[in-house]
Amino acid sequence: MSNDVQHYSDPQDAALALILANNRGDELTDILVAALEDTFRILDEEWVSERMH
Question: Whole-angstrom Cα distance, residue 17 to residue 46?
């Protein structure tokens, strides 16, 4: 990995870079799993509301 300092304009990009730089893959996995669960919940809610119309 490079020792160059990178500056990110998006705070989410900076947080992701920090997680990756510190080899905290488990934390990143937890974040991604939570995001997928939220996505599936939202899709399920939309699917149920479409069936009722």
Answer: 33
